[in-house]
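Still learning folds. Look over my entry:

…
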Amino acid sequence: MQEPRPAEKATPYWWEAAPVKPLASAPLDAKTDVVVVGAGYAGLSAALALARAGRSVSVFDRQNPGEGASSRNGGITSGNIRLDHPTLVRKFGAERAMAIEAEGKVAREFLYALLAEEGIDCDFQPVGRFYGAFGQGNYEQLARSAEKLSKSLGIESFAVPKAEQRDYLGTDFYDGGSVRMDIGGLHPAKFHAELLRVALAAGVTVHSRTGVTAIEPEAGALRVSTARGEVSARQVLVCTDAYTDGATPWLRRRLVPVRSRIIATEELPAETMARLMPRRMMCGESRHLGFYYRPSPDGKRILLGGRDGSTKGDPAEPTLHLRRGLVRIFPELENVRLTHSWFGNVAMHRDMIPRIFSRRGVTYATGFCGSGVVWAPWIGTQAAHKLIGDDAGRPSAFDFRPPAAIPLYRGKPWFMPAFMALYRLQDKLAMRRAGRDG
């Protein structure tokens, strides 16, 4: 007898309300001011800024617009910087480290202003985020970080001791945690659909299912070869992030696509949701391979995600792993039914911060490291200002050298199983130090 599927659907929950779909075929312009490669958050945000500055813009995507990370993510407006402050200082210097942290606040404010000013209807809810701690040492670390955010950047952030934890989250799984109130949640596929609508209205031409196969210099321009023919562009901006392919092999050697998977529960009783997620906050935790989770925008389900250690196919084990994590956090959901389980790629690289850079006439906006809801619109827009030439007074802290190439890597992340095993070991040791089982 065949076992039942761990979840009923392998497509994103978000596609129920905002399905991705191809656009009507548009004529291919022989010449354009700017070609943008990738029609996700970054590419469309850049294209919008360029079109409103008077540039002709053609955007190409080898999938349907938004079919990659832009409609598969958790919709949490975290804007994480994965490196802590001492590491930022060591890698980039004190001045750039401070500028990077400050720009995170600006990027989040930019996103919220974009939603309001463009009338983007994507179920945005500024509910804050709870971050769970394991052990007293981790709790104190989160408390110090919250205090630093409050004092240095004016962000409403504070520690939550375990005695008060259930006021924020209906679980005893954590040893307290921290809250920051400048983070919220949105419907990622609706956000993309609305951003696409605004870009098209501004005069941007978007070509779906039209992959770029090569970008080569020609006299005073760049020749962009696509699945439907060639285009001559004065400038090219590449915004492919974790979906970078062989069309830009130099970039592909610098970005590692890592699978992230999300599960969605069936609709839960209102009293259960009120007990488990009383403030409807976005949630995360401090382990390397920890979980991120949230209520659905309508407050009826819980969506939980984490890194997916598989590299091909759609195996059951990653879904079952997330289910086990869900039940450890909320034991009363042991018998809950899962309606959706899906994955998407996030782009990691050696520097682990978003980046704008140029090489041989091509500009790149990429490397969002799993926090593209905030970073992709901001970095894409900043890259557009760079192309327009109006960024002299406001250079981005993320506009500097490209990340280094990864030795022996050409697009297939053969080393990921070893890294996942290392992270699992580090998490297990950290949990033991906290007096918890792994």
User: Anything to note?
Assistant: The chain has a mean pLDDT of 93. The chain has ten helices and 16 strands. The two ends are 33 Å apart (CA to CA). The chain has one domain: 13-128+182-433.
